[in-house]
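User: Hi! I'm a student and our assignment asks us to look at how structure tokens line up with a sequence. Could you show me two examples?

Assistant: Happy to help. In each example below, the sequence comes first and the structure tokens follow. Example one:
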Amino acid sequence: MIDILVAHKAELIDAVLSLIVVASVVVAGTKTPDPSTWLGKVYKVVEWAALTFGRAKETGEPVKEKIEVKEVVGTTEKVD
């Protein structure tokens, strides 16, 4: 078994790299689905195959409300 792997290592490397490239194209070309759906779970596996995990890609979860910050109005003085 190991002899077969060693004899065909170039083909195996090509196959693995091709899988990564195809998965990367799919991840880059599609919108991230909601992670709680079955498609979201499949998409997570494709993201791992594309080596885009962690903070390398958006999560697909809805954006939470933004907090508004009030602007402070006043004067600034230069202190010597």
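Example two works the same way, sequence first and then tokens:
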Amino acid sequence: MLLLALAAFCANAFALDALPGARAVTFDGKRLVHAAEGKTPVELWREFVPPGEKLDRWTKLASVREYPTHRDPKALAGELVRALKQRYPGAPFALFENASTGEVIVDFVAWPDDRAFTEFNLFRYGKRDGGGVVAQQYAIRVYGDAGDFLRGLKAERPRLVDVMAKDGLKPAR
């Protein structure tokens, strides 16, 4: 299945959608609603969580991050991987690159030192319509013992990478 995702990923030759104005998004059939947004000198971001959840304790999170001054999705994905290795040296990750479009998918599992939660993160970086780079993120977080989550992730991860490669985040009504 992962090879199918990468084949679909390689076939997409258009800019990654930044979902302008979206107040809700879907990923993998799950609807997430706008929870926060902001900007820094280099990034504009919007975050979405399931209805009824808050950012201080979410189970699923989607984000759209726009980098208007960046030009290289691979370089930006590389910055994420470097930060991941520094903050979470033991975190497993994978990086997939589409050389023809310049899009990059990064996925990883991370947890804080106290193991209060475990997260699976999936990012897709691509060129933004109108210039710059956009990253779409989908994350799943479990609190406490992550044993069952991590065992299930072995099968779930390739499917989620496939969904991100084929569809990414979509605006919801």
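Here is something you could point out in your write-up. Residues 35 and 48 are 5 Å apart (CA to CA).
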